TrEMBL record, chain A:
Keywords: 2Fe-2S, 4Fe-4S, Homeobox, Iron, Iron-sulfur, Membrane, Metal-binding, NAD, Translocase. Residues 148-179, 192-221 form the 4Fe-4S ferredoxin-type domain. It comes from the Bacteria. The lineage of its organism: Bacteria, Pseudomonadati, Pseudomonadota, Gammaproteobacteria, Chromatiales. It comes from Allochromatium humboldtianum. Its cofactor is [2Fe-2S] cluster; [4Fe-4S] cluster. The gene is hoxU. GO terms for molecular function: 2 iron, 2 sulfur cluster binding; 4 iron, 4 sulfur cluster binding; DNA binding; metal ion binding; oxidoreductase activity. The keyword Membrane applies. PANTHER family: HYDROGENASE SUBUNIT, PHOTOSYSTEM I IRON-SULFUR CENTER-RELATED. Belongs to the complex I 75 kDa subunit family. Coiled coil: none annotated. This is Bidirectional hydrogenase complex protein HoxU. Residues 11-89 form the 2Fe-2S ferredoxin-type domain. GO terms for cellular component: membrane.
UniProtKB/TrEMBL annotation, chain B:
PROSITE patterns: NI_HGENASE_L_2. Ni(2+) binds at C65, C444. It comes from the Bacteria. This is Ni/Fe hydrogenase subunit alpha. InterPro entries: Ni-dep_hyd_lsu, Ni-dep_hyd_lsu_Ni_BS, NiFe-Hase_large. The lineage of its organism: Bacteria, Pseudomonadati, Pseudomonadota, Gammaproteobacteria, Chromatiales. Mg(2+) binds at E43, C62, L398, H450. The keyword Transcription regulation does not apply. It holds the Pfam family NiFeSe_Hases.
Length: 243, 474
């Protein structure tokens, strides 16, 4: 879903989220309204300034009258909508999703350069993931450390595609892409060449800053030292869309 | 019929081990073996990881001596970077390393070994532990817990947490020391030193009661290996390697740690997950040597701090001449090192340069091979890494302090078993002495685990009396 361009004359709708009466522009998504109103809603793929991907499914919410859950990041508000963001059912699904992410690859927080500054780690803490009930796949993934300034550790990648989108939509380089199917999916640079050999990468580092985990990090960092800064993104996104 | 006595698990040590004593038909000891029964695999699963992860990753080997791995690993990484770290960064690392030695030695002496010394080898095993010590001598137990806490608090003050701090990084340390933190650590030291001196004085009155044990606990001659300063004094962080024999002759001196491969070979046996390092020039298994507090004190002329030097002189008088050979005196050496550690921490903290803010050198990897050697509480610790062009580990070798002592530990349990175990009338106290000699070495087996090839699977069939009837080996 492309990022909507704010229109000058849009209607305002009223809706109810977690028993609070709220108003919102009709072109807004549920996740935007929640965040404007400080209603916590988890997400690992959504990022203000990037197009909507709807891949992580952590922002699923319940809408009255609809049997199925919907992703708050890809659902527009509607007049009279009644939304629940934090039910027992949603908490169960969210915790399970986080556990699946941990079981799929090798996220060993204690030795990660992003330890203490990781969106996946803090989300797991919020979801109460004190252990993973599923067997780990234990599949070894390679580390691409060929780039002069940055490093890619597939073991810690959750395939949120933030790197793919920021590179394409903000930097305009489209160095990143996704290759493979299912659990074999991997983010790749150029045509699956080592990152250090990429001809399109501008070494801007935006992909590193938006990565929610320790998958994309700066070279030269030790455990716990990788602190990411995403403040640049909404500013650059607004400027790009204003062009 | 021949019999096998199995002591499993060996208690009051770090990690999991088993001792088997093979008795002949006449009940006399035929063979004694010390088996490390746990497998970790660090040298395999670290392959392919970035070298900068090694300090945090290899520190997970252990919860007792992680700082030792952090120091050795970061030194190996410094070697890969090919940088000299800022002097203040080095001093701060030294403080943390010494705090680790203080807390680990306190754990070994008070928590693990003092029950044998205070309550007796033959006392009830149900109470022969730190809780029994608390009942019999609460002041000593309190001192032990407090001393360990002081060491741990210094580690936490510097590194942010007691176990597995990430403050030491390749090139130095990540943050300089603040004046407030320095003051808070200096405040702890007088009490720590008071406890250390009190315990040392107490132990000197206690030790003469164990003349018999001292005469049988690992007294066979071995070599001694440790780091020493270039002047031949006590050193735990840097320095050069020295090898001394049981007669006090220096066989190797001023050997740069990077050349450890010329001195040490590593053999493997199919009955243990621990390697059997040996002194190369003498071959395997003749090249038996010991490391750790006993070896360190045997190898040096002086500690370099006032009280520790007095204690060192008294330590050297335990024997008429030459290096102290009985492994029983590891306990004594440990107490001397606690005094040294606290005195040296105080000296380093009082150095005005310790607050310098330049504590880290930054560089990319400039070598393909890095070796870091330091003195862990249990002995000389070696981390050896090879990396590719991208800085990913292609090979690593960890020579763990406890591993160096493997041949000596096997020899020691044999000696103790020969002296104390009567195969025809086995008593618990006899077997406890066999365990106790292992405790002298304070082995950390979770660190020393290593696999070479495939371990054999052994199945033993025993009769109702516990006798081995049949044995199947893969």
């Amino acid at each position: 879903m492309p990022r909507p361009t704010p229109q000058p004359n849009v209607r305002v709708v009223t809706l109810r989220i977690d028993d609070r009466d709220l108003s919102a522009r009709e072109d807004e998504t549920l996740i935007e309204v929640c965040r404007e109103n400080r209603i916590p809603i988890p997400s690992l793929c959504h990022l203000d300034g990037l197009s909507v991907w709807g891949g992580c499914r952590l922002c699923m919410v319940e809408i009255a009258g609809q049997g199925r859950l919907v992703a708050a990041c890809s659902t527009r508000v509607a007049e009279g909508m009644t939304v629940q963001t934090d039910t027992e059912r949603l908490r169960h699904y969210r915790r399970t999703i986080v556990e699946l992410l941990f079981a799929e690859r090798n996220h060993v927080c204690s030795v990660c350069v992003s330890n203490g500054h990781c969106e996946l780690q803090s989300l797991a803490q919020r979801c109460g993931v004190d252990h993973v009930r599923l067997p780990y796949r234990q599949t070894p993934y390679p580390v691409d450390s060929s780039h002069e300034m940055f490093r890619l550790d597939h073991n810690r990648c959750i395939l949120c595609t933030r790197c793919v989108r920021v590179c394409d939509e903000i930097e305009g380089a489209h160095t990143w892409d996704v290759m493979g199917r299912g659990s074999d999916c991997r983010v790749i640079t150029d045509m699956a060449r080592p990152w250090g050999e990429s001809e399109t990468c501008t070494s801007c580092g935006k992909c590193v800053q938006v990565c929610p985990t320790g998958a994309l990090v700066k070279q030269g960092t030790s455990a716990g030292e990788m602190v990411k800064d995403q403040h640049f993104l909404p500013i650059l996104a607004r400027r790009r869309h204003a062009q | 019929m021949s019999r096998t006595i199995t002591i499993e698990p060996v208690t009051r040590i770090e990690g999991h081990a088993r001792i088997t004593l093979q008795l002949g038909e006449d009940g006399r000891l035929e063979d004694a073996r010390f088996h490390l029964t746990q497998f970790r695999g660090f040298e395999k699963f670290c392959e392919g990881r970035p070298y900068r992860e090694m300090p945090a990753l290899t520190a997970r080997t252990c919860g007792i001596c992680p700082v030792s791995h952090i120091i050795a690993s970061n030194k190996a990484c410094d070697h890969l970077l090919a940088v000299d770290i800022p002097p203040t960064g080095e001093k701060l690392r030294r403080i943390m390393n010494l705090a680790q030695i203080v807390q680990s030695h306190a754990l070994s002496f008070f928590h693990l070994s003092s029950p044998d010394l205070l309550l007796g080898w033959d006392s009830d095993p149900a109470t022969r532990n730190i809780f029994g010590v608390m009942r019999q001598n609460p002041e000593l137990a309190r001192d032990g817990i407090r001393l360990r806490q002081i060491g741990q608090t210094i580690i936490e003050t510097l590194g942010g947490k007691k176990i597995h701090p990430t403050w030491v990084v390749p090139g130095g340390v990540s943050e300089p020391l603040s004046a407030e933190k320095r003051a808070s650590m200096l405040k702890l030291l007088p009490e720590g030193l008071e406890i250390a001196k009190r315990t040392y004085a107490f132990y000197k009155t206690l030790a003469p009661k164990f003349k018999d044990e001292a005469a049988h606990f690992g007294t066979q001659p071995t070599l001694f290996l440790s780091l020493v300063t270039p002047q031949g004094n006590l050193e735990h962080y840097d320095g050069v390697l020295r090898v001394k024999d049981a007669q006090g002759r220096i066989l190797e001196d001023q050997v740069p740690p990077e050349e450890y491969g010329h001195l040490i070979g590593e053999a493997v046996e199919d009955f243990s997950y621990m390697k059997f390092p040996y002194y190369k020039p003498q071959g395997y298994p003749q090249g038996i040597y010991r490391v750790g507090p006993l070896a360190r004190l045997n190898n040096v002329q002086a500690c370099g701090t006032p009280y520790a030097d007095v204690a060192l002189a008294e330590f050297h008088m335990l024997q008429d001449s030459g290096p102290i050979v009985s492994s029983f005196h590891y306990h004594y050496a440990r107490l001397v090192e606690i005094i040294y550690g606290l005195e040296m921490i105080e000296r380093l903290l009082k150095d005005p340069a310790i607050l310098d803010t330049r504590v880290r050198a930054r560089a990319r990897s400039n070598r393909y091979e890095g070796i870091g050697v330091s003195e862990a509480p249990r002995g000389t610790l070696m981390h050896h890494y090879r990396i590719d062009d991208d800085g990913l580990i292609t090979w690593l070798n960890l020579v763990i302090a406890t591993g160096h002592n493997n041949l000596a530990m096997n020899q020691s349990i044999r000696e103790v078993a020969e002296a104390y175990v009567d195969g025809n009338a086995i008593e618990e106290g006899m077997l406890n002495r066999v365990e106790a000699v292992i405790r002298c070495y304070d082995p950390c087996l979770s660190c020393a685990s290593h696999a070479f090839g495939q371990m054999p699977l052994a199945i033993e069939l025993r009769d109702a009396a516990g006798r081995v009837v049949d044995r199947l080996t893969r």
